[in-house]
């Protein structure tokens, strides 16, 4: 990463190793002994590390920052709420319905909603509700999708160790130790955009399929997206089989459009999960959908249980109320769309200059960059792209003050504050970074 000596970062990591496994609070933050990042502050679309290097950030905490870091319009509402209302009480406040009504005004797919504290928790709630409603067990997931860190969805297609020339499907493996084999019992995996595969799964397991769980635009797989026809296929097969369609909009919700991915496809889920952009960085999440489905949550003997101590706390909800109001009433998302388009155009100029075949996947607010001739249609196609070149290019960008995940499975996230960046500078940096990636 940054080639300059980083004495403060090194000291921070040394100290942190005494206190946390890998020296970090989340394993994905460990980027090796020389490259693990420790920040001192964030503002707008920039982050500054503890060695006083500032980066323009396209990682944005894996997506939550939609307006910008430390957006005062949001922060002031949170300060107001905790000063004048409180944080949590174990009871309800009017903020609960304020936020649900805002979501409903943006997302016609929502009749009723419940809150959670993270995307992971929202998905757990959605899946449990689907099972409770359908009285079935199986969940169909898509290769390359990511649905959080709970055992049942911590099984992945091992495309890293799969050869494109293989006739066999990639092996399904757990994310690591501690995930019992039994947690895989009720999960079936299919490649995205493969009509035959979904038909085969429903033919084999249809009676027990509670839901399909899908990120229609895979925010954890280079924004590779479902086609319109495939989303319609999923909607239809769920309807004819009495199964539910769960769209995991933890990354896409309130980012790719005011109404999320469902506004782009004009296809509605039965249950949807939200998090990330909903609170501009404050920890808020939710799941919701059809009123009849959500009413499976009840105290009935056969009802679904949902709740939690920190659910609908005032920090989260005041942030969500402020963020959603801004997204609804201003042209922030239009600005983001425009900026994302401009950045792809400048990157495209650079790649073309160096003769690098490239394509972009997904929407302007979170676009994937793939070095290959065709936009990947699923995770297996991603393996055909030159992801090693991408990683080298990304590492060089980081060296030059542009922060992003050095893995083409993570998209470039755009926030409203990116409108202030110097686009000419970014193009020059991209050029320098590609030249170094190609010439070594
Ligand atoms: C689509 C999707 N679902 C669920 C999650 C889990 O969210 P969290 O990290 O807030 O638990 C993520 C996180 O990146 C995600 O992208």
Write the layout of secondary structure elements.
Elements: H1 7-17, E1 39-43, E2 46-49, E3 54-57, H2 72-84, H3 94-106, E4 112-116, H4 119-134, E5 138-142, E6 155-157, E7 172-174, E8 187-190, H5 195-205, E9 209-214, E10 217-218, E11 224-225, H6 228-241, E12 244-249, H7 261-265, E13 271-274, E14 285-289, H8 291-294, H9 314-329, H10 332-353, E15 359-361, E16 366-370, H11 379-382, H12 387-399, E17 402-403, E18 412-413, H13 423-439
Parallel strand pairs: 3-17, 5-8, 5-9, 9-12, 12-13
Antiparallel strand pairs: 1-2, 2-3, 4-14, 6-7, 10-11, 13-14, 15-16, 16-18
Helix pairs in contact: 2-9, 3-9, 5-6, 10-13, 12-13
The structure holds pyridoxal-5'-phosphate (PLP).
Pyridoxal-5'-phosphate binds next to helix 4.
Summarize the structure.
The chain is 36% helix and 16% strand. With 440 residues, it is of the alpha/beta class. Pyridoxal-5'-phosphate (PLP) is lined by residues 62, 118-120, 123, 146-148, 215, 219-220, 248, 250-251, 275.
- Rg of Cα set: 22 Å
Distance between the termini: 14 Å
Any idea of the CATH class of the largest domain?
A: Alpha Beta
User: Percentage of helical residues?
Assistant: 25-40%
Mean of all residue-level pLDDT scores: 97
Write the CATH architecture name of the largest domain: 3-Layer(aba) Sandwich
The beta-strand count equals: 18
Low-pLDDT parts are none
Globally, the shape reads globular
At the fourth level of CATH, the homologous superfamily of the largest domain is: Type I PLP-dependent aspartate aminotransferase-like (Major domain)
Number of domains: 2
CATH topology of the largest domain: Aspartate Aminotransferase, domain 2
Hetero compounds: pyridoxal-5'-phosphate
Q: Tell me the major beta sheet.
A: 7 strands, mixed
Structural class by helix and strand composition: alpha/beta
Strand order within the widest beta sheet = 4-14-13-12-9-5-8
- What is the number of helices? 13
Tell me the β content: 15-25%
